[in-house]
Design brief:
The complex is a heterodimer.
Chain A (H helix, E strand, L loop, with lengths): L2 E2 L10 E2 L12 H8 L11 E7 L2 E6 L8 E4 L9
Antiparallel strand pairs in A: 1-4, 2-3, 3-4
Chain B lengths: L5 H15 L8 E2 L5 H5 L3 E2 L4 E2 L1 E6 L5 E7 L7 H16 L27 H4 L8
Antiparallel strand pairs in B: 2-3, 4-5
The chains are: A mainly beta, B alpha+beta.
Chain lengths: 83, 132
């Protein structure tokens, strides 16, 4: 499912998947930013890719690969923090 | 998912988490350097540069059914997350004909919303059921 990625010196990053945000006039920019981070129950989760460590391998994970399954997506402040 | 690199995830899993969970973390530990994904989900704290304790339940259609966000010092209740998933699965399997009242857990009664139930919930569901 998830693609394996090579561990190199450049730190791999992920990001949202899909259409790039359209350039808008500067004054409207803050409004778009606000709308972009709005998450609502009952609506589709925004798709994204992210590098990951999974069972001894570095892989690239895309949320939409999990369609058909229940997913729990957890965020936390940082590795080696205490809670 | 956190802002840590996959290399730090590996070190944390290999040196600490694998001592708590036999065989190490069974699921993917995602990296969100820069908080791009966390920003979209509304959990990236730009001032602190870290992600807050957000938890999203996403159904097989990719729809967010529930979420919870806590500030860093308080940990999650995993049993409650599992209970919510079980409840959402019951609702989904019933194609929306059943609903789970407050305090529901597997094995307890569900409600079947419809014209006959209007004003009659008090007859079939008692307040103490929210707590047992």
């Amino acid at each position: 499912m998830a693609k394996e990625i090579k561990a190199g010196c450049a730190r791999p990053t992920g990001g949202p998947v899909g259409e790039k945000k359209k350039k808008a006039p500067a004054k409207e920019e803050s409004v778009i930013e606000e709308v972009r981070s709005m998450i609502k129950v009952g609506q589709k989760a925004p798709d994204f890719t992210a590098p990951a460590y999974h069972k001894g391998k570095f892989v690239s994970v895309q949320l939409s690969e999990y369609l058909g399954k229940w997913v729990v997506l957890c965020f936390y402040p940082g590795d080696f923090t205490f809670v | 998912m956190s802002i840590d690199s996959v290399f730090v995830h590996k070190m944390w899993n290999d040196n600490e988490l694998s001592k708590m969970v036999k065989g190490g973390v069974p699921f993917a530990m995602l990296s969100d350097g820069g908080g791009k994904v966390g920003s979209i989900f509304g959990v990236y704290d730009e001032d602190a540069g870290v992600e807050t304790r957000g938890r999203f339940i996403i159904d097989p259609d990719g729809v967010i059914q529930g979420y919870e966000v806590l500030t860093p010092p308080v940990g999650r209740n995993v049993n409650e997350s599992i209970r919510q998933i079980q409840a959402f699965q019951v609702v989904r399997n019933s194609k929306g004909t059943e609903a789970t009242p407050s305090g529901w857990k597997p094995g307890k009664m569900t409600l079947k919303p419809g014209p006959d139930l209007v004003g009659k919930v008090w007859e079939v569901w008692k307040t103490k059921m929210a707590f047992d």
